[in-house]
User: Fold this.
Amino acid sequence: MEEYDEFIRDSIINNSDYIFEGIVERRGIYQPEIIGYYGDDKTKICSAVKIKITKILRGHDDLKLGTAELIRLGGSIFDDSNQYIDGWANDVGIGLSDTHTQLFFCKKNEFPVKEDIFEEEMDNKQRLSLFYDKPNWDIIYKYSTKRGAIWMTKTFESINQLYRYLKKYDNIDIRKPEEKSFAERRALKKQQKDSIALQKEKGRLKTTTYIKA
Assistant:
């Protein structure tokens, strides 16, 4: 069974375009921000989930910290007075917690979307969907810093242990998007050094010119 779980973990991580930590935003005190709507003929109902990205592990070029729209199959549709109208696969909320930080394994969304479903503009323009979305199976990792971490039956003693586990995979860069890579930091330091040297040289030439005058 462990070999099978490891195979699933490898598949999810290796094939996800975007991997990040985040949390589902709340619509109110008791409800997560998940809104159902009618899609096309192939997908009767979809749900838009408002999430907040808190740490990016893969996909720094396309994503940034802040809100994003996640599209899932299934959900429930309510009218303006919050009366239930229609629903399909109502377990869509399972695995999307609004009380725990989670790891999201995503790709670019290909499901039908409804524009302006949320009043405020998202920080990320790119809509996302889960690479592997099986609501009845808790494949989405949740953690508490006190209790460690569990994902797909694998237990980690700490968040750092989880990060070490993930670093064995390609294109995992555990940093915030505003942080620079080593090469970028080195180039920036060189640019700053050259700028300081140029300013010193300008000051020297200005002083020399002033003395000669």
